[in-house]
Specification:
There is one protein chain. The chain is α/β, with parallel strands linked by helices. It folds into two domains: 8-44 and 289-396, Aspartate Aminotransferase, domain 1 (Alpha-Beta Complex), CATH 3.90.1150; 63-284, 3-Layer(aba) Sandwich (Aspartate Aminotransferase, domain 2), CATH 3.40.640. Helices cover 40% and strands 12% of the residues. It has helices spanning 15-28, 47-58, 71-83, 99-111, 127-134, 154-159, 183-196, 219-222, 254-267, 273-284, 288-309, 345-356, 380-396, and strands spanning 94-97, 117-122, 138-143, 165-171, 199-203, 230-235, 248-251, 324-325, 336-337, 340-341, 361-362, 372-375. A seven-stranded mixed sheet has the order 1-7-6-5-4-2-3, with helices on both faces. Helix 8 links the parallel strand 5 (199-203) and strand 6. It is globular and about 60 Å long. The protein starts with 14 loop residues before the first helix and ends in a 7-residue tail after the last helix. The model has no long low-confidence stretch (mean pLDDT 96). Bound molecules: 4'-deoxy-4'-aminopyridoxal-5'-phosphate and glutamic acid (GLU).
Length: 403
């Protein structure tokens, strides 16, 4: 009998990817499934970016490249990070990985040792705790609440620090809540990190999906005190509709980044030149595609929130960023379906897929059992039709009377 590691060997599959895959399969069978589980833009990669990838193939860019990524892309990334306020950022303090996931994974692998603690504000993206587990670390949750707009409470953060605290993962705009952390809160988090010597991984993958009047500010700009401890993570997946190209990057202290590059040289090698040259075209090309997507997402966000808030006892705050809404559906966890008590967001999500043909991700996987995540990375028509089915389904459930 094989025995597996209790760290990486004990992980379950990513539910966001699994539910999206089930929804895609159902759609391929002709079932009209609302694709609200999607963690990726429904838009196609812009043509000029695709062309750069095609040209790279024609030019024979099909060999191994440097483990850190292509120098020209690293230089463009350094320019972006410096432009966002990371003073002193240079190409040799960056690395290119297979998606932002690759960056996060390597970053945690090289800083954590057995039992080191990582502060993770919740609700959180489901892969953070799994990556921490795979690096033999331990998550310490720092709860944020819907009534506070999911803003991190610095006092709560301070109270969670122990002698084992090694790192903190920040994600603004955040998945699954869409919350943007205010400037002063990020600055305070920077001061706390500097005071306690805590490494900060700031996942800024939803940077360009911040909706006016809210605006994006990089943690690097807001927390100069913590600069020597900060790794910024970003990439082209969400902003340029390039999820399948698998390009993300990190920028931070040289010692941290160099160790990640060395690990990448053994574990993965640098990502394909083809994808990197397409990402370079994205970063150095026109900004219209970003603006056009932002405008579309902003309009869909409103349609989604209005439709969900019209359902009795569903409370859906309007988030400032990303392309998810995270309504509180806890009233329906007390309901029953054909005599079966629902109880969990996981069961509710299964029933929604089966009976309302709406694929959503249960809050359980984001450490928030009272909610479900709806992505609005789909057409307005999909949103209207799908939420109407969800409304019919929820209102058909048997609910306990208050009498
Ligand atoms: N961070 C967050 C918060 C995400 O939602 C995602 C989406 N998958 C990622 C990182 C990973 O992005 P990538 O596809 O570039 O690996
Ligand atoms: N980040 C997206 C999501 O949360 C994409 C899927 C994934 O990589 O987890 O759905």
């Amino acid at each position: 009998m094989l025995e597996f590691s209790r760290y990486a060997g004990g992980l379950a599959e990513s539910q966001t990817l699994a539910i999206s895959a089930t929804a895609k399969r159902m759609r391929a069978q002709g079932i009209d499934v609302a694709p609200f589980a999607a963690g990726e833009p429904d838009f196609d990669t812009p043509d000029s970016i695709k062309e750069a990838g095609i040209q790279a193939i024609r030019d024979g860019r099909t060999k191994y490249g440097p483990a850190a990524g292509l120098p020209e892309l690293r230089a463009a990334v350094a320019t972006c990070l410096a432009g966002a306020g990371y003073d002193g950022m240079t190409a040799d303090r960056t690395l290119i990985c297979p998606g932002a996931k690759g960056v996060l994974f390597l970053a945690l692998q090289v800083i954590l040792a057995d039992g080191d603690e990582v502060l993770v504000p919740t609700p959180c993206w489901l892969s953070y705790p799994k990556m921490v587990q795979a690096a033999a670390g331990k998550c310490v949750w720092v709860e944020t609440k819907p009534d506070d707009g999911y803003v991190i409470d610095p006092d709560r953060l301070r109270a969670a620090i122990t002698p084992r605290t090694k790192a903190l993962i920040l994600n603004s705009p955040g998945n699954p809540t869409g919350a943007v952390q205010p400037d002063d809160v990020q600055a305070e988090i920077g001061r706390i990190a500097a005071e306690h010597g805590i490494a900060v991984i700031s996942d800024e993958i939803y940077e360009h999906l911040t909706y006016a009047p809210a605006r994006f500010r990089s943690f690097a700009a807001l927390a100069p005190d913590a600069r020597d401890l900060t790794l910024i993570v970003n990439g082209v997946s969400k902003a340029y509709a390039m999820t399948g190209w698998r390009i993300g990057w990190g920028g931070g202290p040289e010692a941290w980044v160099q160790r990640m590059i060395r690990l990448q040289s053994h574990a993965l090698s640098g990502p394909p030149d083809i994808s990197q040259l397409a990402a370079l075209a994205a970063l150095t090309g026109p900004t219209e595609p970003l603006e056009a997507m932002n405008t579309k997402f902003r309009a869909r966000r409103q349609i989604m929130c209005d439709a969900l808030n019209a359902i009795p006892d569903v409370h859906c705050p309007v988030p400032d960023g990303a392309f998810y809404v995270f309504p509180d559906i806890s009233a329906y966890l007390e309901a029953s379906h054909e005599g079966e008590p629902i109880r969990t967001s996981t069961r509710l999500a299964q029933l929604m897929l089966e009976h309302a043909h709406a694929a959503v991700v249960p809050g359980d996987v984001f450490e928030a059992p009272y909610a479900v995540r709806f992505s609005y990375a789909c057409s307005s028509e999909d949103i209207r039709r799908g939420v109407a089915r969800v409304a019919d389904f929820l209102t058909s459930l048997q609910r306990p009377t208050n009498a």
